């Protein structure tokens, strides 16, 4: 049984997803949380992972650690993305199994689903058609993690579960324009343009593709839900179930930031997949639903960005 005294190891607790999970668990009174940075514990090293889990004796492991990157990095370094992610999750899953950890929650992403799968994406579409080639390595690593958790449930009746969040945004997001996702990139671009006498903001593509976004603290609530309930299946999508065009997203971010200049859509740049929306009915049927609507989440994220702007300056400006 999991309770507030359970020892919970959050792998990747400094990242955007991991830090939200840590914050949410702490707020709910879980007080035996364990974490280690990649400098303290390289999760690619099997013996180090074994020693760490032996020493800390977690009741639960939440795997929010991964080598993540944008399209360019995924495309340029397929071996690294496949190998390192498999090493990280294999070590965690195997040691959790060997050392009899009660519960394991594995985080993946919507890229596990086929490139041309029908929309919205249902869990059952996994492995029904080819993947998006640019992030195939990352997706394959994540699929193998999902399959390991499924296999361990079937063979050993263990409570290992995989959650697949849609695009996340929120506190501790990456605002480095070279590697950031679309929403934090827009926040930074509109903010800098506002500071620069409302200069024109150039955005990639036509603005027509549709995307779904989930506030990262809502994803953390889904993890807590999976922690506190024994879910009957091995794989669940986590999102809002609602999407909007990139143009609509831009106009919302622009309004919140207070930019009044023009937007230039650079349609020489690729649009990517026309639509990517998760079917979240399985998780809704279990009793979890997101709480933060997009506009409220962007307000919170922009406030956090303003409070922390000095830190980004050192890191990425
Ligand atoms: N961001 C999204 O939009 C999104 C959407 C869907 C799913 N997800 C999933 O959420 C998970 C976390 O993503 P994120 O956005 O939070 O990424 P992130 O901010 O880059 O965090 C990743 C974390 O993994 C840790 N890590 C990486 N390599 C490691 C290693 N070799 N040893 C130990 N720790 C290592 C890093 O630790 P250090 O900081 O200590 O180096 C970092 O804290 C991933 O599985 C991702 O697929 C994210």
Automatic annotation (TrEMBL):
Binding of NADP(+) occurs at 12-18, 107-110, 142, 165-168, 181
Q: What is its EC number?
A: 1.1.1.271
- SUPFAM superfamilies per record: NAD(P)-binding Rossmann-fold domains
State whether keyword Isomerase applies.
Answer: yes
Q: Does the keyword Electron transport apply?
A: no
Q: Which pathway does it take part in?
A: Nucleotide-sugar biosynthesis; GDP-L-fucose biosynthesis via de novo pathway; GDP-L-fucose from GDP-alpha-D-mannose: step 2/2
Record InterPro entries: Epimerase_deHydtase, GDP_fucose/colitose_synth, NAD(P)-bd_dom_sf
The EC category is oxidoreductase
Which intervals hold domain NAD-dependent epimerase/dehydratase? 8-239
| Family named by the database record | Belongs to the NAD(P)-dependent epimerase/dehydratase family. Fucose synthase subfamily.
UniProt protein name: GDP-L-fucose synthase
Originating species: Flavobacterium defluvii
């Amino acid at each position: 049984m999991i309770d507030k005294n359970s020892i919970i190891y959050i792998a990747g607790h400094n990242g955007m997803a991991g830090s939200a999970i840590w914050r949410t668990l702490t707020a709910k009174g879980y007080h035996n949380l364990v974490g280690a940075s990649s400098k303290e514990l390289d999760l690619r090293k099997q013996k180090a992972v074994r020693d760490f889990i032996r020493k800390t004796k977690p009741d639960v492991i939440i795997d929010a650690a991964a080598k993540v990157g944008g399209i360019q990095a995924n495309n340029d370094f397929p071996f690294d993305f496949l190998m390192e992610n498999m090493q990280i999750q294999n070590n965690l899953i195997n040691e959790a199994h060997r050392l009899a950890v009660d519960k394991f929650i594995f985080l993946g992403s919507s890229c596990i689903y086929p490139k041309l799968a029908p929309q919205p994406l249902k869990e059952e579409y996994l492995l029904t058609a080819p993947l998006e080639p640019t992030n195939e390595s990352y997706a394959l690593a994540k699929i193998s993690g999902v399959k390991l958790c499924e296999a361990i449930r079937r063979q050993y009746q263990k409570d290992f579960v995989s959650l697949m969040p849609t695009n996340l945004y929120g506190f501790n997001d990456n605002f480095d324009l070279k590697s950031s996702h679309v929403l934090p990139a827009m926040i930074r671009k509109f903010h800098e343009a506002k500071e620069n006498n409302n200069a024109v903001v150039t955005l990639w593509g036509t603005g027509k593709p549709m995307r779904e976004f989930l506030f990262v603290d809502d994803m953390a609530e889904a993890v807590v839900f999976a922690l506190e309930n024994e879910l009957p299946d091995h794989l669940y999508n986590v999102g809002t179930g609602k999407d909007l065009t990139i143009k609509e997203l831009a106009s919302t971010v622009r309004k919140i930031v207070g930019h009044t200049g023009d937007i230039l859509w650079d349609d020489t740049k690729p649009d990517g997949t026309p639509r990517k929306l998760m079917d979240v009915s399985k998780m809704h049927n279990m009793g979890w639903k997101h709480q933060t609507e997009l506009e409220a989440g962007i307000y919170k994220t922009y406030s956090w960005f303003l409070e922390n702007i000095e830190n980004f300056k050192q890191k990425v400006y």
